[in-house]
Amino acid sequence: MNKLNMLITEMNSIDFTNRDDITAYLAYMGYREHYAESSLIARAYATANLFKDHKPFIYNYDRILGSINGRYAPCGAYSQATLQHAANVCASYGYMGFYQNIDHFTPDYPTLLQYGIGGMLNRIDASEAAHKGDSDAAQKLDFLQGARVCMQAFSEMVKNYACAARKKGEETQNAELLMAADIADKLAFSKPDTFREALQLVWFAHISFLYEGRYAMALGRMDQYLYPYYKNDVENGVITSEEAVDLVACTLYKIAEKKLMNAPTMWGGDVVNIAIGGLKRDGSDATNELSYVILEAVKRCNIPGPNLSARMHKSTPDEFYDACLKVIGTGLGYPALMNDEATVPALADCGYDIEDCRDYSMVGCIEAFISGKQPPWADGRYNTPKYLEFALNDGRCMRDGVLYGLKTGKAEDITSMQQLLDVFVAQMEFGALETVTIFNNENDRYNRKRYCQPYLSCYCQDCINRAKDINDGGAVYPSVYGLGCMGIATVADSLAAIEKTVFIDKKLTLAQLRDILIADFEGNEELRQELLSLPKYGNNDDFVDKYAVWLLDKQYEIFSKLRTRDGGRVYIAMASNVQNISAGSVCAATPDGRRNGAPMSDAASPMHGMDRNGVTSVVLSVSKPDYTKVACGSVVNQKFTPSAFSSDEKIAKLRALIKVYFARGAQEMQINSVGRKTLIDAQEHPERYSDLVVRVSGFSAYYTYLTRDIQNDILMRTEND
Amino acid sequence: MIERGRISRIQYFSTGDGDGIRTTVFMQGCNLRCAWCHNPETQPLDTAILNYSEDKRVLSGEDITADELFKRIIKDEVFYIESGGGVTFSGGEPLLQADFLSGVAKMCKGRGINVLFDTAGCVPYQCFERVAPYTDTFYFDVKAVTKEDCEKYRCGDPKLVLDNLKRLCLKSNVVVRVPIIPGHNNSKEKIEQIAGNVADAHPSRVDLLPFHRLGAGKYRAMNKEYDYLYTEPLKKSDLEQYVCIFEDLGLKCRIEK
């Protein structure tokens, strides 16, 4: 019984245009009743109103209820003046942003499932009784009252969905909706007993966060916390795995709602991370049947929103690798493959309990997160190559001459590689301190007693028991800040180029090189070509790889000494999202031969087109740095044509490649199986695809070097696959 | 042992030339000029230059010592172990450099690396004997079996090829590879002819390879005529009709892609 396709058709046939976002109005209606009370309580009522006063929207083919459609009303339903006034009131209460830890969070769904909404309310009551006599009882009881108001409203929201589903189910004789209504009625207070009930409760909670305006709220380890329900249902004949796939798919497809209802921009959708596989809390393999169910469901959805992360470790079954690779081979680009053997020790290094480390999940893209036990994530970018620029130019930007860095001395006075490295480290330390200080200053502006999140706190241990906000000492662990250290390959290649040309071959002095970089190689194209031909990261050449290893070690040293406002760690990430392009646009030419303003190397990957010896050398190079020092995570992009996934035999070869990569301690790989669209784009913009290797039957070749008719040939073959 | 050999190029993570993850060493130089060859740059015994564009010129033909070649092969040892892969010597005709490669293959074998030779088989049998002790598998091309066809398509002496095949199959693990070429052997009659001759040798398997024209860009880059520029590539499904011809003769047969 595959209902997914019907739901997809229905969702895509609805016209979601010409509507106003009324969330501010809904919140305002909560505020206006509670102006006289503390901002914490007023905020709680605003949240409560978002939950219980939005109109539940039910699709005919809903299996799991919950839609963000209630955030919108037809244009004209509320006057613009009304909406503006509501927005003004909301704005006066202030908004927290990404830096203030509001989203990119894995809620503690296991606890919600264990207690149900009623049980959560009981926990709030119990905590209130326990903290009545505390010296700071006023703040604590306020917090708990806020939590209660929100949780009660959440319960009402669930009841409203039950009501709406029953009404629609009766009108249309839809047994599926009537069943969903019964389930929702139960969940409004009671804990779930079946897989379907558990999935429904989690989805209601996820939807509630979307009404609050949160983004990138992860679903965490679904295959773990839903597994007991699934197993029990399968054993009792309540559900089959096929039925479970359809239920999960009908749930996850709703992530597309945000995209359907928003303007179709790159960021118009959502990034809902789901972690499958990996280690259990006790260190044994956590991969189970549900891991495969989720994998299949995500594949059927065929949308970018569910950002699936597959956790791998030494005992991960080969079948799981292969199942993941088959999904990757469809061209979706996920699951991203994560190595627990790197990430778990990296998290343990931050002082977390080892069982919590093994229970990590991902939020947003690849950010490792202690599920339900730490405040929401925050991160920024750190433009590493810029600090090398400062090191070569006495702290000054080579593009505008402004002193952004430290005055560490002129290039004329740097007489050895070691001295240059020391100066570079000093520049990086200064930049790190500045970056983290700016972040902490941003947060200091927010009074944590006023800017509280009692509802979100219910999903984070140990806020309810401590009667403290998630950002004010309630969470088990302090907040963290992640810094995406960009351009590891650009820096490694540049340092190797300096060592070779300046200090070994003595072709030119460091000062001459600096002047050439400032001039963006003008009149020195021959030298630039020479620099480009030197050893590059990604070719398994220690002469350059040693600098990548060195850089990661140094960045760990620098950032692990710094702390967030509440004493949490500053993580490093070897990731750049797409900011390697903007980072490059503000950097002068670099000694690796890169021109002024050109993009930096991507994430932890080698520089585009510089991995000249194939993927095995990339694997051997990129796995050299010590990723057990990278708590946030890293990204290594690899592209394969769909033919690399065309048989079980070939899948097994990819599996072997990745197992070697992980056995050597690398952290992440995400694989693009290049589809038709890219291949056509590569024909139109060959300069962007110079590193795209295609297997061309008996031999392999760079795609862009093949003649047009052969490219078409491959295009044709791709379609046949 | 000959110290230096000449290679065209090395392909890492080669997944179509045998079991597991392999490193394929394309040797420079061939004694045949098969009309459909997709590696024309490997044909000259000295060197060839591929002029893809003004800033993309590739030289085929690099002299290399046995030690250096071995060094480049064992770089990926960890992948061979994990995947059950190894090294494939292809070309060109690798057995033209049998003396040189027997040394390299011996080193590989000593290290436990699986060794595969991909040959067109038109060489004195002594060449096989030089490398056989260190070779796990031979991929042995049989493109045509009549004198007329072989002359027309410039693919060697069929008698020598088939004699070598028979002798080699007695001692070694041999997979016969038959490229199916439109206008030449893309017919039941021709395939039956080939199958009959191959069956006598009892190879462990026969692989059928659909014609493709993915080497056309190389001909252009070498400023050479390519007879098959406008020939439509074959699909896997086009070859299915031939599988039973081999199977009926008691041979294992599969279609490669």
What does the model show?
- The complex is a heterodimer of chains A (721) and B (257).
- Chain A has 721 residues and is of the alpha/beta class.
- Chain A has 3 domains: 19-214, no CATH class; 218-373 and 648-664, no CATH class; 379-447 and 474-626, no CATH class.
- Helices cover 50% and strands 9% of the residues of chain A.
- Chain A contains 30 helices and 15 strands.
- In chain A, helix 14 packs across helix 28.
- Chain A is globular, with a radius of gyration of 27 Å.
- Chain B has 257 residues and is an alpha/beta fold.
- Chain B has one domain: Aldolase class I (TIM Barrel).
- Chain B has a 9-stranded mixed beta sheet. In chain B, strands 3-4 form a two-stranded antiparallel ribbon.
- In chain B, helix 6 (158-171) crosses helix 7 (188-201).
- The longest helix of chain B is centred in the middle third of the chain and has 14 residues, at 158-171.
- The chains are: A alpha/beta (721), B alpha/beta (257).
- At the A-B interface, helix 27, helix 28, strand 15 and helix 30 of A face strand 1, helix 2 and helix 8 of B.
Question: In brief, what are we looking at here?
Answer:
Chain A is an alpha/beta fold. The model of chain A is unreliable at 695-701 and 717-721 (pLDDT under 50).
Fold blueprint:
The complex is a heterodimer of chains A (721) and B (257).
Chain A: H1 4-13, E1 19-21, H2 23-31, H3 39-52, E2 72-74, H4 80-93, H5 109-131, H6 137-172, H7 175-187, H8 195-211, H9 222-225, H10 227-235, H11 241-252, H12 256-261, E3 272-277, H13 289-301, E4 306-312, H14 318-332, E5 336-339, H15 340-348, H16 354-358, E6 361-363, E7 367-369, E8 379-382, H17 384-392, H18 417-444, H19 454-457, H20 463-466, H21 470-474, E9 481-485, H22 488-504, H23 510-518, H24 525-532, H25 542-560, E10 570-574, H26 580-585, H27 615-622, E11 633-634, E12 637-640, H28 648-663, E13 668-673, H29 676-684, E14 693-696, E15 699-702, H30 708-720
Parallel strand pairs in A: 3-4, 4-5, 8-9, 9-10, 10-11, 12-13
Antiparallel strand pairs in A: 1-2, 5-13, 6-7, 14-15
Chain B: E1 4-14, E2 22-27, E3 48-53, E4 56-60, E5 62-65, H1 66-74, H2 77-83, E6 86-90, H3 98-110, E7 114-119, H4 125-131, E8 137-141, H5 147-153, H6 158-171, E9 174-180, H7 188-201, E10 205-210, H8 216-221, H9 236-248, E11 253-255
